Amino acid sequence: MAHSNTNYNLDQKYEFSAGLKKSIFIVLGIGAVILIAGIIAAMFGGHDQGHGDEAGHAFHWYHRLYANIWINNVYFTGIAVIGVFFFAIQYAAQAGWSTPLLRVFLAFGNWLPIAAVLMLVSFFLFNHDLFHWTHSYLFDKTGPEYDPIIDGKGSYFYWPMEKGTFPLFFIVRMVAFFGFWVFFFNKLKTLSFEQDIQGGNEYFYRMRKWSALFLIFFAVSSSIAAWDWVLSIDTHWFSTMFGWYVFASWFVAGLSAITLVTLYLKGQGYLEMVNENHIHDLGKFVFAFSIFWTYIWFSQFLLIYYAHIPEETFYFVERLQSDVYSPYIFVNLGLNFVLPFLVLMTRDAKRLGVFLKLVCSLIILGHWFDFFLMVQPGTLGQNGGFGLMEIGMLLVYASAFAFVLMSNLAKGNLIAKNHPMLEESYHHHI
Amino acid sequence: MQVTSSVRDPLITGGKTLKDVTHDISRQVEGKPSMSWLLAFLVSVGALALGFIALAATLWEGIGMWGLNKTVGWAWDITNFVWWVGIGHAGTLISAVLLLFRQKWRMAINRAAEAMTIFAVICAAIFPIIHMGRPWLGAYWALPLPNTFGSLWVNFNSPLLWDVFAISTYFSVSLVFWYVSLVPDFATIRDRATGIRKSIYGALALGWDGAARTWSRFESVALILAGLATPLVLSVHTIVSFDFATSVIPGWHTTIFPPYFVAGAIFSGFAMVLTLMIVTRKVFHLEDYITIGHIELMNIVIIITGSIVGIAYITEFFMAWYSGVAAEQYAFVNRAFGPYFWAYWTMMTCNVISPQLFWFKKIRTSIVATFILSLVVNIGMWFERFVIIVTSLHRDFLPSSWAMFYPTWADVGVYLFTFGLFFTLFFLFAKFFPVINMFEVKSILKSSSKKVNN
Question: CB distance A238–B319 less than 8 Å?
């Protein structure tokens, strides 16, 4: 094939500059201060303290903290795994345009081991305050709070243990999903960096095989993870779409984060072979999958609204008829559909960094609201809301995520220099 | 400048030149019909004629000719409708969605796949039209037309009406998209033809002159139509799924239906494209354009969409159990182990298990295996719709009204009629229209062709 006389520096390494580190720590610090302010406000605010909600639990300020941790756990796990997913898709689909960006996608996976620990620890610490089904009295047939519906699905969480004891099946799934995701991530990472040294198309074919295997596993595990970690919060509710709904939300958020990191690196003078055509493609992905998310959101909502079956509608009634949550339903649709749909419609908007930076940042916030709406009503009832604690916690997680991402990006070469499609990507033109 | 990586398989083999492309594809249009074509065409027309008896009987006697009953009010007819609409998805998907993803391999198959789409949608539309009973009055029932029948007006709340809009829009855009891309190729044939053929293809070519300005306008139209076709193709099966999912029938009402129906439609559409293209490439000697590589890629699309459908089946089953709703749980147990268990397991075998064979490279690059599996997938997808429609209806909320559905000869006959129609139209297309998009294939000849002396 043709060899062009390009002078791209293929051995470039990203240097995690002191300036950026400082900025990240400042954001982390601001986030922590806001978070603490939120906690103090909640502790002394006397907000609904001691009052029982419908299920008879007293609400305490720390419940809101736990719910917040869970929102961010699930959300950033998703963004991290989407990086690996998008990386694998490039190999499985034999995409050429994205070759210089592969390492950026891959770097997102570095958050996964941390996410695994955070998820497991917070589940063990806060399970009763997050998941209604963890209460053993629900399964006590003689007790006053026996719940036949939850008892019916109890084995999904507790098998092979007795219902209401230790949720072994649930824990095993969580460990297995993270275990395999991290395993596939490491495998792909090792192969990708070995190719830098060894060269040869052989690595491409091997990575394509591993990518396909990861995609099969992810196709199943992402849906089940969504049922486990999010759907089961509203234990009575069910929706077959839910697995793909969570995936769609993760995917758009991940794509937006990928676009932002790419634009940042370009702004710093790295990835000089990435031009407006590659950026345009990222913009198209964000645009298209924002519409895809909306399609999934709308389909799920419309079918439940139209059929009007009480077993299903209560989920939306709980949110739409709540003064606390109903405004965020419109924030969710505004940030995640109206904004990208209108702003990214034109060709120029997808090619100019300034539009993409704005839209992608707002989408990342928007999909955080999506998870906020999935988690808070089921855990906190009417005691939730978007306040200092939420802002602070999001900033803390986002800056920690950014730190892990950027420091890992700085560890290896930025370009997969022996990838057989690198040459194609230089000439990418749309 | 286009650069193609060394890991990509060539899309055109045999060291073809631009002239070869024109010649190889135009000669089918220009030559005398072959014996095998005539035979196939006659069989199709025969099926059309035989099926017409059933169609005429249905129109004359009414819907009572079918096997429907009070409990199972939708069965064979709507199964066929959804099946044909599903098949109609591949063409637009290939030409519009694969265009957006810059998949160059689409160019060898998009023309025929789009033709197939149009014919399949025509076949699909026949079923709801006949089901009206008196289709000559159907325009008032299906379209919001002002009339003097008092309160007779369409129900805008009904997904069936949304379907009328969705499918007619989709059909119009697909037809225009397909025809527009035929124009430059008609002009090529016109320029090679003489006499009456020159006049006919000249008229079809709409005065195409190949000027830079003409091409520029052509490109704009094609891009706009591709942009329109993409949301349309996704909307069509979404709304078909709404026909069922907006109800409260267990087995019909489930939120995963829209994307799952779209995936299933692409799955069956690609299977039908494979069935048709494997025959076409053989009969017309197009092995250099529709290569094993093309067949392999289509098989990969089948694995992906088949697996998505499989995940959806499992999700539905799991959620029915997880929901704790007794009616929902019963509907799914009845599907798998009730009186229609054979239909369910046919569906599972054909749609979920057999496409997994394509994970083996040997199988997905074998023409014979692909051809057989493409038929298996289409059988499976017919059974999928039958399972969804009939098993959900036949044992409803009132056990005293439980019933079975048995098709009559008229049910089978009308289905045969649509087969006859589909293949008659397809064979006419294959003979008189260029089956491969010549001008698009030429555009990738330089970058994706395997050179003989290299």
Answer: yes
